[in-house]
Amino acid sequence: MNFRHLIPLILLLAISGVPADGLPDLGEASQNTLSPQMERRIGETIMYDIRRDRSMVDDAELTDYLNNLGYRLVASSQGNLQDFEFFVLRDNTLNAFAMPGGFIGVHTGLILAAQSESELAAVLGHEIAHVTQHHLARIIAKQEQGMVTSLAALAVAILSARSNPQVANAAMATAQASSIQTQLNFTRDHEREADRLGLQTLSKAGFDPRAAASFFERMQKSTRIYENNAPEYLRTHPITSDRIADLQNRLESLPYHQVPDSLEFQLMRAKLRAEEGTPQHAVTHFESALREKKYSNEVAARYGLTTTLLRAQEYARAEQELARLRKIAAPNAIIENLAIRIRAATGPQGTVIAQYQATLKNFPDHRALVYGYAEALLQNRQSGDALKLVADRLRRFPNDARLYELQAQAYAMQGKKLLSHQAQAEAYAHQGNLVAAIEQLQYGLKAGDGDFYQLSISEARLKALRTEHAELEKKP
């Protein structure tokens, strides 16, 4: 059996319809048995493997877009008292899933399948409700440590399925015996509550709630593809016509209002399409769409074509299309970042640095620009300027692991071993890898450089990380 399409749906509490009001608040009971800190620990444990997998999309613009969209919904959700992290996995299946601790994964296939931003928001709103109501926490609390192990096995299965279905089968066999049946016992009530609250969140955040019905109908058709091969635990909770009908009945009482997509939504979908298949195939796709005017947004279509031309190393044509794009688009950080990437492929490093400086004056907090500028400075051996840039951004974004990695590179370039290890330790710590963080600080303290103040900071941080790691090693 090919688990590539099925395993993520197991970890996911599957997307469904919206029933009548008056359901019990399922989230409260879990608070008494599983702390928010423990939920975060379990989520970080799974994320540690996911972050290291090649299917994790390392694209600052896409990640920022998804997190901005997600937090717009979180701000309108009921009972939220925690942080969230939204991330993307490169997988062409239509899927999203929630994990303990506020981690929500979205497949690239789902983003491309969403025909409007409201449809994508409908899925995120549903998953946010699973987290705020602590549905997975209830499952884990009931199974205690056994469920933690099962979820970790499921994470391994999710990642293994992308490269080795046989390994995924073995991982699933381990996870299935101890947890899947129990998970299904909770699924119906959890789904009903997530549907109800997700729709409320969607409407309150200013999106079109009717998008939920249209998207879930396509989800239903998607699951039918696997009906003959799907295992029993997947067939027991399909997206049924009755539940979609309940959703449509509920929507009748809501006023109709059309919600336009943001340009960022269209640009991110174009970027994902530009990365599909061979470069020439992608170029042909966008050329055809523009020639036949088969696009929902011309700016996004031209952005997609320009991106694919850069990918195909057709730099002259990319510059020509960029000029056409700028004529029809308002100033935009995503488009300007593409312009700098084209310049970096064709022009001298000095002009690239100057272009970053000018662009960041207009878009100072666009992470892709900040990262690109720091990398360009390091490539040009301007480590001092890179450190100033990173230090400024860390004051505003102290949890950004990538900034710490750039800081570590800059210190290493200056031969400051203690500070380099210290920065790399912070990068690991913010990625949830406390063991690696502790090792980096130990290396730094043995490096033989650094003044008394720097050594004291490293020693204190090492002690704090060891204490935190010891606490996390204790059983729930």
Short description:
The chain contains 24 helices and 3 strands. The chain has 476 residues and is mainly alpha-helical. Among the domains are: 7-251, no CATH class; 275-346.
Radius of gyration: 24 Å
What's the helical proportion of residues?
55-70%
Strand content: under 5%
Give the total of beta strands: 3
Overall average pLDDT: 81
Main-sheet strand order equals 1-3-2
Instruction: Give the topology string: H per helix, E per strand.
Output: HHHHEEEHHHHHHHHHHHHHHHHHHHH
Structural class: mainly alpha
Oligomer: single chain
Q: What do these coordinates show?
A:
The structure is a single chain. By secondary structure, the protein is mainly α. Among the domains are: 245 residues, no CATH class; 72 residues. The chain is 69% helix and 3% strand. It is built from 24 helices and 3 strands. It has a 3-stranded mixed β-sheet with strand order 1-3-2. A hairpin with a 3-residue loop joins strand 2 and strand 3. The relative contact order is 0.09. The N terminus is likely disordered.
